[in-house]
Amino acid sequence: MSLAERNAPKRATPPPAGTLRPDAATAGPDACTDDRAQVLRGSVDAVLATRHAGTRKLRLAYELVGPAAAPVVFLAGGISAHRHAAANAVDAAPGWAQGLLDAGRALAPGQRRVLCFDYLGADGSLDAPIDTADQADAIALLLESLGIEALEAFVGYSYGALVGLQLAIRHPARLRKLVAVSGAHRPHPYASAWRALQRKAVALGQLQCADDQGLSLARQFAMLSYRTPEEFGERFDAQPVLENGHVRVAAEDYLEAAGAKFVSRIAATGWLRLSESIDLHAIDPAAVRVPTLVVAVEGDRLVPLSDAVALVEGLGPGSRLRVLRSPYGHDAFLKETARIDAVLRAELDPRPRPQADAAPYSDRTGASV
Prior knowledge:
The chain has 369 residues and is of the alpha/beta class. It has helices at residues 3-7, 132-146, 159-170, 189-207, 211-226, 229-235, 252-263, 268-280, 305-315, 332-335, 337-348, and strands spanning 32-33, 38-50, 54-65, 72-76, 113-117, 153-157, 178-181, 241-243, 246-248, 292-298, 319-325, 366-368. The protein is 34% helix and 19% strand. The strands form 2 sheets. The chain has a 10-stranded mixed sheet, sandwiched between helices. It has a two-stranded antiparallel sheet with strand order 8-9. The longest helix is centred in the middle third of the chain and has 19 residues, at 189-207.
């Protein structure tokens, strides 16, 4: 019996895949149904046996958007992503994946139900090592509680890709396909070094009773690892200026604004534990038995193309690789909305090509777009 089966509520008759039971976890007062889509937002209480922190009582906060009869796609982003992916009838504020759920997109709520949740520990309430396997087990519990038998797909970007790989290993019956963008089977040592320095910046801020300043500085370091020198060369190619007897370079305003925005929406403890979680991640690609599309970005300094290739080689039959060229590096998923949507549409809504255009194609053939 799986962890999800041991902890989930019992039911006599399974509902159709992608639908909600009438007795599913309630969404609370902010649930809303309109003519265009259903928005269900709430939380589920669960007991989870974590890998490093023992058995914990947890609350899984989620948002599910789309018509009840539509297939369900789970969308998971980086460690700062959360349950609110895009503006909807309940919450008009822009979400972390704003644009990807617009009308006409592959993930538009009119075609699919998109499910997101807040990562375990993101609110700082779980001050202990958090494994990507814990996140996958929490998702399995959430799906069980919502009465969702199987996802049409799991789309994971960055940390979300790591969680998706774990879900495919630990709960393969819960998803029919996986799209893993800018994530691999292990952290690259260069990326781990970047994160270690960011965590030291936060720790230094905490020692000086300046938590916000430490977290802001960590985020500014992170922005340099997310983006590319080419983008900075185009945006910030200006002479430095003297301010109060000190040199200030052109990118500083941008970095400080990014740091201030980040501090306003995430707890330092939550960020630290999720940053560590990336470096704890390790899977055997051969253990993944779900059809998987790996999407890599040339110039990604955190997940090099070589790691994506190694992941695909280890995944076995049914795996494929797409390669994007983008000046946005690791952040291409969030910045190249139209191109990412084209990749998702080709994966989620495949259409046979005309015979005249057909060409031999291998499961592991890479394509640059």
